[in-house]
Design a protein that fits this description.
This protein is an all-alpha fold. Strands 1-2 form a two-stranded antiparallel sheet. The chain starts with a helix and ends with a helix.
């Protein structure tokens, strides 16, 4: 278990206040100031990873240099999603299955680790929302599925912080981002003209199965919402509505659609974002 004391000592030295306090349930969580600080830090880290990706690949990768502006931006976004999605979902898996304190009361319990992860998720999805809007404005596109996914996600984490409620379900939900690393690898290898490579095929199969696992997790969370309904009835209406709406959107619409597209991609080996390929196929 991570101790809050070193972080509180550091915050007292810098800003003169504790950033971790006990909630009404008696478990540690970040204050609003703490959430803003950590969310801002993780937002800056995601922006940093985005620009570092562009610099590093721009220097060392001939493939990257040959991409057009739109493809380069999507590549860098895929790298950010791959890095933070994989690391974040891995940490959330640990919290979900190994942090017993978080499971004591799914409506109220928080921990030092889960509070930092919630702040990291806020920073990550803030970047996602801003980056996707910028991408769509620059290249005159409209990624409806991604915007819906990002909006519901960032609202869920914002409402969690605003209402100061348990982190069990938000942490559980973020494990769904485990697919991003394999999506990143798939996209980069397609752009490298390596889609016939055995490694790409293995990665794509893993990606497809990961999306099937996402469906299992989504329906498991929906079952747990029903199972813990007596506890959840006491939670804020808007938080419950956003969680249920978002999960139903994912479980019944977005994840089946993405699973189909990734499966189709295994056979067609095309980049959906390649406008030229779309025109040729019409």
């Amino acid at each position: 278990m991570m101790s809050h004391e070193p972080l509180n000592n550091l915050s007292k030295t810098i800003i003169g206040i504790d950033i971790f306090v006990k909630n009404d349930f008696g478990t540690m969580h970040l204050t609003n100031i703490g959430e803003i600080i950590f969310s801002s830090i993780f937002l800056l880290i995601t922006i940093g990873v985005y620009f570092v990706s562009g610099i590093v690949f721009g220097i060392f990768s001939q493939i990257y240099k040959g991409l057009n502006r739109k493809e380069k931006m999507f590549w860098d976004l895929a790298v950010v999603r791959g890095v933070f999605g994989f690391l974040g979902s891995s940490c959330c898996f640990y919290e979900r299955f190994f942090d017993i304190e978080l499971q004591v009361d799914v409506s109220k319990a928080t921990t030092v680790q889960s509070s930092i992860l919630i702040a990291a998720c806020l920073g990550f999805f803030s970047f996602e929302v801003l980056a996707q809007i910028t991408f769509d404005i620059m290249f005159k596109t409209l990624s409806k599925a991604l915007h819906a996914h990002h909006f519901v996600s960032i609202m869920g984490f914002l409402l969690t912080v605003y209402y100061d409620i348990g982190h069990y379900f938000p942490i559980w939900v973020f494990t769904l981002e485990m697919s991003t690393l394999f999506s990143c690898i798939s996209f980069c290898l397609i752009k490298a003209k390596a889609a016939e490579n055995l490694f790409w095929k293995i990665n794509q199969l893993i990606l497809i199965y990961v999306f099937h696992l996402r469906s299992v997790i989504e329906f498991t969370i929906l079952y747990e919402i029903w199972y813990y309904w007596d506890l959840k009835k006491s939670m804020p209406f808007f938080w419950n509505f956003n969680l249920l709406f978002g999960l139903c959107l994912l479980a019944f619409v977005l994840t089946p659609y993405w699973t189909f597209r990734k499966t189709e991609q295994y056979f067609k080996k095309a980049d959906w974002n390649d406008t030229n390929n779309k025109k040729k196929s019409q």
